[in-house]
Specification:
three-stranded mixed beta sheet, Rossmann fold, 14 strands, alpha/beta, about 525 residues, eleven-stranded mixed beta sheet, about 40% helix, 3 domains, globular
Length: about 525
């Protein structure tokens, strides 16, 4: 017969006994939604409950997504947009920083608009706004992307020159949808008109601070130079039409630098916000437009940007914003603290998890799970409208996408000792999703032909490649060891194993034995 004993038990021991604590998942009724009015994402890790995303109980429809290269971030976004189109007939505009989405968008019969390759977006287009409101938006964009905020006089000069440009074009500053005497819509001015006004003021010689005026002209001239005047010509892109054109990728990769790309993104976002603001929020209509900002750190981080303002204002607008980044600190903490949903895929560094944990207040258990995630696994944090008695952050077993996630594997078995091979806790392979793998090779300088050649080699070996062979092939392609080391670290391979891989690669290349090789160092 058993014996009953009374024991002193520490709180930490009780916490480990899962039968005595609430499981880290919302109840099933908060996870399972109507398939006709929600988006299926995947199944939960604890109770295998199907998770259907919907904004109905959330503070707002906006979403933040973060995860390192190869964690499945782009795959999640693509899955979400395809199902949103199917379930809600929702349109989507992807503000595509590096041209990452254009091939996929074409594949699914979407539209790609390449800004910077013969396509123009007039910064002074009104899109139904009053000129006075558009001027404020333009000045705010310039404050985010240049240093005019530090020079009040230059800011004032540019603002007044912009006002004059509208007035010279026949506009009244405080009216919408203005027409000429024949009933035709007025033609908006451009930044070249703004520069002309400033130049005329300088040439008149009556302004008492000519240096300030010259600097103001210099700030504007960056965007009006021939060949770089993507925002200083009349628009060739009809943004109004694109809002109802299904899936659209705005490819910004042809623009010269981050400042130009950020200006394009802000302009598109401001236009969308104004259109949606006029319609107003009506929950029964659902989200009819999704706007994706992927790796747009310049406007995801600045608290004066429209991305942050939209999230802070919650359901004010009739569209959903998806802000995504590999690096959580590139997204404002205000966004993480205010979006209705945060989706966290694999992250590596404590400083990033500290940043997220401070914003979202999830448990250390969730934190440890995120560190060990594989491809497609995610932690989901939901901000419900009503206070809930359960954990709002839970683990998703894997994103169930429209097509299987295909991983490529780098094997390290050949560099392990016999003891390490027998150790079941020691990983023998490290994986990265196929599309992310190819993208990473291109970032290391490989041409498309060489990327496809390596991909074919891996496919023939059941999607596996030995780490030693990988080093040899990459060095043949001209990739240095610093870049290869960073790639291995991204996969999760520790430095001592990386040294062993390089040692074996040197042996293979030179045809020497362990005893003949003296030293391998890792910078």
């Amino acid at each position: 017969m058993g014996e009953l004993k009374v024991l002193d038990v520490q709180n930490t021991d009780i916490g480990r006994r899962t039968l005595l604590v609430s499981p880290p998942e919302p109840p099933a009724e908060y996870l399972i939604g109507d398939p006709k009015d929600s988006i299926y994402i995947g199944r939960t890790a604890v109770f295998n409950v199907p998770f259907h995303w919907t904004f109905k109980r959330l503070t707002n429809p906006h979403i933040a997504i973060t995860g390192i290269t190869g964690s499945g971030k782009s795959y999640l976004i693509k899955t979400f947009l395809l199902r949103a189109a199917l379930v809600w007939n929702a349109n989507a505009i992807i503000i595509d920083w590096a041209g990452e989405y254009k091939a996929w968008v074409k594949q699914v019969n979407g539209m790609v608009v390449a800004l910077g390759r013969g396509a123009y977006l007039n910064l002074l287009d009104l899109g139904g706004m009053k000129p006075s409101d558009r001027i404020k938006q333009v000045i705010r964009s310039l404050e985010i992307l240049t240093d005019i905020g530090q020079y009040p006089e230059q800011r004032r000069l540019i603002e007044e020159a912009t006002e004059k440009a509208y007035l010279n074009a026949g506009f009244k500053l405080s009216e919408r949808d203005q027409k000429d005497a024949l009933g035709n819509a007025l033609r908006p001015p451009t930044l070249k008109d703004v520069q002309k006004n400033l130049q005329q003021m300088l040439e008149a010689g009556t302004y008492e601070f000519p240096a300030e005026l010259e600097n103001a002209i210099y700030k504007i001239k960056k965007f009006t130079l021939e060949g770089d005047d993507y925002f200083a010509e009349q628009s060739t892109i009809d943004l109004d039409k694109l809002l109802s054109s299904g899936l659209v990728a705005m490819d910004l990769s042809g623009l010269p630098d981050e400042t130009f790309r950020a200006l394009a993104a802000l302009t598109i976002l401001q236009f969308v916000k104004e259109k949606m603001r006029l319609e107003g929020w009506k929950p029964e209509r659902g989200v009819k437009l999704w706007v994706v900002l992927d790796e747009a750190w310049k406007i995801s981080k600045d608290e004066n940007s429209d991305a942050v303002m939209i999230v802070r204002e919650g359901r004010k607008y009739q569209f959903g914003l998806i802000v995504a980044s590999q690096t959580p600190t590139d997204i404002s903490e205000v966004i993480f603290s205010n979006v209705g949903t945060v989706m966290m895929l694999r992250l590596k560094f404590d400083k990033y998890l500290d940043y997220l944990q401070n914003s979202l207040k999830f448990s250390n258990y969730i934190r440890q799970q995120i560190l060990g995630f594989g491809m497609g696994q995610a932690a989901i944090s939901m901000a419900y409208e009503q206070t809930t008695p359960f954990s709002e952050t839970f683990i998703l077993k894997k994103v169930d996408g429209e097509e299987p996630i295909i991983d490529y594997f780098i094997d390290i078995l050949s560099v392990l000792t016999e003891a390490q091979r027998r150790d079941d806790t020691m990983p023998k392979s490290f994986s990265m999703e196929r599309t992310a793998f190819k993208k990473r090779l291109r970032e290391m300088g490989l041409k498309d032909e060489r990327v496809e050649e390596l991909s074919t080699m891996i496919e023939k070996k059941a999607k596996h490649m030995d780490a030693i062979d990988f080093v040899v092939e990459m060095e043949r392609s001209g990739v240095n060891r610093k870049a290869i080391t960073m790639f291995f670290r991204e996969l999760g391979i520790d430095d001592s194993t990386i040294i062993n891989i390089f040692t074996k690669a040197d042996q293979k290349r030179m045809g020497v034995t362990d005893k003949e090789l003296t030293q391998v160092t890792l910078d």
